Amino acid sequence: MRRGQGALEYLITYGWAILIIVIVGGALFALGIFNPSTWGTNKRATGFSSLQIEDWKLDSTGNLTLIVGNKFGREITVWIINATRSGTAGNCDVTIGSPGTLLSLDATGTQLTSTDGDCLTGLGTGDAYTLSVQVIFSAGSLNHTDSGVITGKME
User: Topology of domain 41-153, per CATH?
Assistant: First the structure.
């Protein structure tokens, strides 16, 4: 009889330990510890191959400002930036302030600012967003498109 009682006490002790581990794990999950976006960088640009997106800002009026560099391999002219916010319907043609902006080979720090980004409004300061961005540019007589995704928080 004594061996059965020892085995039961052993199982109950381990049961309590496992229960505590599950509760602590659930609390850490609820606090967002296991979500990389809570401890990683909040700004990310991915998918672009011809342009280097160095920095960007989406303000409360829906205007998008991109700081870009030219990694295409030769001089390009940027014409249109199309931006679509994830979770909204339809496309938004966000035109840059000066269509026809010339980017020399290996240019960096060129600012492109939208002038009619009303469809990007509706977010408050600190709200996270994800934008699908498409940049239409020309190199010589051919038009090209570079697209990617940028994420960040409203400033």
Answer: Immunoglobulin-like (2.60.40)
